[in-house]
Amino acid sequence: MNTIAKKYNIAIFASGTGSNFINIYNNICNGNINAQIKLLISNNPNCRAIEFADKNKINYKIINNFRFKDNQIDNVMLGALSNYEIDLIVLAGYMKKISKKVIEFYNGKILNIHPALLPKFGGKGFYGMKIHESVIKSKEKITGVTVHVVDHDYDTGNIIYQKEISVLKSDTASSLSQRVLELEHRVYPEVIRNFLETI
Ligand code: GRF
């Protein structure tokens, strides 16, 4: 008897250039991840992720303090997500902290990628280029990427995947960020695919 594999419903949260979001979308389109992106959530209406979603007819919702009062944000977010049976939330460069209420609702089903080897270079204040500048300044010989389940604090959730790369003598923060981002694009779709099989 033929069984049809379940297509997982995912939501992606992104705030910036959205290269991971676009890469995940492409991996879904070419069949590497058996899922559909039901919703993109962003706090930033002007980011490339939103522009891409708009062009590619991906549902999106902009949730920020200009559009909603602080005490409405959780319910607006949960309301938007509840329109779809979301199996997994994927953070891909989302610059806002996820609230306790949302984390509890999607307990263990929110992943984040961080461009360093946590627990080093993680936590409040470690984002974007600051991370790579600190890695260079600390004369680290290796760096890499970490994928973790999101919990109540920044970058502290259960680590499910790490991959190292060498820091080259010639590296600047900028060249390092480029190489780490390329690594993210190689590994995040694979980690998402494997994680979906476990839920
Ligand atoms: C990535 O380096 C990711 O690890 C971090 O934010 C960055 C997002 O990049 N959480 P992009 O928006 O996907 O290009």
What is the total tally of β strands? Answer: 7
| Biggest β-sheet strands, sense, barrel | 7 strands, mixed
Residue share in β-strands:
15-25%
Residues in helix, %: 25-40%
Question: Tally the helices: what do you get?
Answer: 6
End-to-end Cα distance: 24 Å
Order of helices and strands: EHEHEHEHEHEEH
Please provide a brief summary of the model:
The chain has helices at 19-29, 48-55, 73-81, 100-105, 129-137, 173-196, and strands at 8-13, 35-42, 60-62, 88-91, 110-114, 142-149, 159-166.
Please describe the structure with a list of short key phrases separated by commas or semicolons:
single chain, 199 residues, alpha/beta, 6 helices, 21% strand, binds 5-O-phosphono-beta-D-ribofuranosylamine
Protein architecture, described:
By secondary structure, this protein is of the alpha/beta class. It is 34% helix and 21% strand. It contains 6 helices and 7 strands. The protein has helices at 19-29, 48-55, 73-81, 100-105, 129-137, 173-196, and strands at 8-13, 35-42, 60-62, 88-91, 110-114, 142-149, 159-166. It has a 7-stranded mixed beta sheet, sandwiched between helices. Strand 1, helix 1 (19-29) and strand 2 (35-42) form a beta-alpha-beta unit. Helix 1 (19-29) runs parallel beside helix 6. The radius of gyration is 17 Å and the shape is globular. 33% of the residues are buried. The chain binds 5-O-phosphono-beta-D-ribofuranosylamine. 5-O-phosphono-beta-D-ribofuranosylamine is lined by residues 14, 16-21, 92-93, 113-115, 181, 184.
